Structure formats: C-alpha cells, structure tokens
Amino acid sequence: MILTALLLVIAQNPAQDPRYERLDPDTRARVVAIVDSARVVGLPSDPLIHRALEGAMKNAAGERIVAAVRRLAGDLGTARDALGSNATPAELEAGVAALRAGATPATLTRLRDLRKPPITMALAVLADLVASGVPADSAAAAVLVLAPTARDADLVEFRRAVERDIALGAPPDAATSVRLGATSMGLDATARNARPGKP
Amino acid sequence: MRPRATPGPANPNLAGCARWGAGASLLAATALLAAPRVILAQARATIDLGASRVHYDGFEVSNAATITPTFDWYGHRGAVNARGTLLRFESGNRSLQGSVVGSLFIRPGGVWIAATGGRTAFGSPSDARPVFAASVSALQRPSSSLLLLLTAGRAFVGDTQYSDIGMTARGQYGKIVLETILGTRVWSQGAGHGVYGEASGSLRFSDRWAFVLSGGRYPSDPIRGSIAGRYVSAGLRFRIPPPIRPAPRLATQHTGANGGDGSDPPPWTTLTLVPESPGNVRLVLRAPPATLVEIAGDFTDWQPVSMARTAGGSWEVVLPMAKGVHQINLRIDGGPWTVPGGTTRHVGDYGDEVGTFIVP
After folding, report:
1. Last residue of a domain, which of A63, A83, A103?
2. Who among A54, A187, A197 is closest to B137 (CB)?
3. Among A40, A105, B134, B323, whose Cα sits 20 to 30 Å from the Cα of B108?
4. How far are the Cα atoms of A131, B103, B117 from residue B114, in angstroms, in the given order?
5. Interchain pair A197, B101: CB under 8 A
6. Do B303 and A50 touch (CB under 8 A)?
7. What is the CATH number of the domain that holds B336?
8. Model confidence pLDDT, tens digit, residues B52-80
C-alpha cells in the first residue's frame, strides 16, 4: 500500500521525473514550473521536457533552455487554439512545426475542418514543404487541396515528389503546382488545350 | 478565318501533313523512358485509346477510332507540351494532328503570362506560317477541391488573328477528375467567332489506367490547323510510367550545433527508415568511414545512442518510435552534432539545425 501510494505521488509530481536530473537545479525548477503550468491548461508535457533535454545534451545555458521551453509552450498553446482541445500531443507538435514554418493558425483550423483526425501527417507534410523552400501559402494551399481525400501515404509521397523535383532544379512553387496538377490545367499560350480524345 | 486547307475527314491527304507534331509527341512520350533524370522530374506522358463521334462544321457526322498521345514537361518558368491525335474514320479516311508547343511562364503576383512563338505548317512544310500567341492566366482556388483558371489570350497566325477568353474549372473528387472549359472567341480576323465549351471526366482505377469521357464544341484552331467541330469521345488512358530511380538527397547545408565546431556533416550520411515490428523502426545510416556513429532525438529523450555497424558498412539501430514527426541529430566520431542527410532540416531553438523526419 505504501509503495502504491509512493508511485502515485511520483506520477502526479512531474518534478520527480528522473529525466529532470539532467538539468541543473535552477534550470530544473524553472522548467518544471513551465511544464506544470502547461499541464494545467491541458498541454502535453513530453515535448516540453524533450526540448529541455535537447538543450541539456547540447550544453546550452540554463537561460536558453528555459527560453526554448517557454517558447514551445506558447506555440503549443497557439496550435491547440487552432486545432481544438481534442488535438492529440502528436498533432500539437506537428502543428507547432507547421506554425514555425510559416503556416497561419487559420490554415491549421481549416486543415482540421477538412480532414478526419489524426491530421499529424498533413501538418508534418506542410512543415516539410516549407522547409524545402515552398512558399508557406503555396504549401498550405497544396495540403488543403489534398487534405479531404488523400491518405497519409499519399501526402508523404506528394512531399517526396515535390522534394525530388526541387532537388532536380525545379522552383519549389512550380514543383508544388505541377505535382498538384495545377499547371496541367492548360497554361499553354495557344489557349486551346487538348481534351481527352479530342478529334 | 481565311479559307485554308484544314485537316479533317474530307481532306485526308492534307491532314496527313501534320503528322510531324503527333510524331514528335509520340517520340517525346517514348523518350520519357530513357530521358535523363533532370527531365523526368517534371515530365508526364499519356496515351489515350478510344472512340469518338465527330461533327466537323460543314461535314457529315462520323465515327472514328482515336489515339491521343501527350507529353508535358514543366521546367524553370517554361514548359514543353506535345499533343497528337490520330483518328481513323469509319469512311477509312485518317486525320493526324499534332503540335509541339514551348511556353515561358512569368508569375507576377499570382498571374501567369504565357507566350509562344514559332511556325506552324499543315498542308506542306513549305506552307509554314509564323505564329505568335500570348495569354494571361489567373489561377483561383474557390474551394479545396476546385481549381479555376481564367485565361485571356491573343494569337497571330500569319495574317489571321483572334482573341480567346475562357475559363477552365477542374475538380478532383477522389479518383474522379472533372474538367470543364467555357470560352468565347472575340476580336477575330479570319478565325471566326462564337462561344464554345467542352467537358471531360476521368476515373482513375489504377496508377496507370483511367477511363476518360469527354465532349463538347471547340472553335477553329489556326495554330494546329483544325476546323471547328463537336465531338463525344470515350476511351482508356494509359500513363507511361517513368523509370523508378532513387530520389537524390537535398544538398547539405551549414550546421552549427552547440558543443561542436559547426562543420557540415559528411556528404555521404543518408538516413533511411525501415519499419520493424509494430512501434519499432530501424534507422539505417550510410557512413562507411566512421568508427563511432551516435544519434539523439526526442525518441531517445535526447540521450546519445550508438549505432551498430553492419557488414555492409552502414550503421543501424532499432528503436521504439511512435507515428508522427520526430527530431534527430547525428554525431560521427565524437564530432559536432549535425543533421543527417535524408531528413528535413530546421533551425532549432538552440541556434543549431535539427533534422526532422516522419514515421508514417
């Protein structure tokens, strides 16, 4: 009984998470405070802890670790506001990546409305497209077009195709458009486009 | 439009003289199979096989079997589009039309400007006439599944000139693609006037095959040498698959992870993910000359984990990993933390770069 009670105390007291021991005492206290505050408002704690641990591994100064964790907590809150309270931690993390890449909260909300959950992959693809050089608005438009019907595997393949085109020298915006089939609508200066089987 | 010989069912001899275009289209589609990698990225080729019911203006209604090869290549602000149509009418006459069009695109603020110049010949090569055509297009996306293209263009073919204003709508709903064109020809000298419209639908039932249905009315086309007409067509579309080649990795950029000297990762580091048992992923890294390879990421709680060298010279480790986005850094022989090739790099919160990858 005592052991059970002790385990419950540890589970409910994140400051006892052994991972925190990799932080110096001052940084640990400040990170724990941020994580606790985030948890109170329903944000996931693991991404915040991971961000602190990343700083510890990279020998970052305590101030910088605290700033990084605080910034991530703010971004997670923004993502949660955009994606709704039912968003999973993975969706929130992917949402943060998309926001930091340049997507707007409105885009995230639209994506949530268009696609059945989970939308983790769609958000990740959006962030990756922007990281590959595709303008944020073009990337958002592309993912929103695909979102209602494309499977996760289709989205990943779309991202790969665009990245492959970019690596081969295509302008990122054009690569996205081509892969969406937009330019195949007939940006042909002769105006008359061939229809299927047109005599 | 000036009275000219045009390819059609009643004029098979002259029609045959346009076969250079269709031939070029077929050649281009076939060449896709052997094209260099730089061509493949933006190229697509299809062949439609079907049957049409055609009513050219001024001629009897006729049925025809059709072969329609297409080839499109989109490059840096330019495109090459080749189209061909071979018809064999029930009368035994044949019509072969084709074109190869090069276009340049400029896109200032969402508006596309396309221009085409060259010569067109139908009748005989010595009868070629100069062509110049330019158009302005605006692409709109009123909903997530619908694209609208508004286009206004002016074309000069010899002493024939005309303007077309049109709208193309394209919707994709799962495996079905619907496309409609409505347009009108105005300010025409020798090319006729009027309203035209076409519609097509395709149902994709595999990566390579689709059923295609199309029909409508189109205006005369002095550039391609066809007269106005109406048609209904049905057929199968085969997409010529380009040879599958491994995607090249994006060029590595400068990294400067804390605790390191910020040097670039070796260019031969390439991370590959291989699904293992449920919840586990095998990470494979190509880094033959190394003696110690470590990775760290959110999936290791940012604790360095050594990878094991394989007989083939690569490095591997199997780790539990949830679906979603993960972050990773790589360290080789105790050097700086870098971003492995094959991942997407982002600027991290600690002034360095972090690689991200997706576990689908």
Report:
1. A83
2. A187
3. A105
4. 29, 6, 10
5. no
6. no
7. 2.60.40.10
8. 888 888 788 888 898 888 887 765 456 67
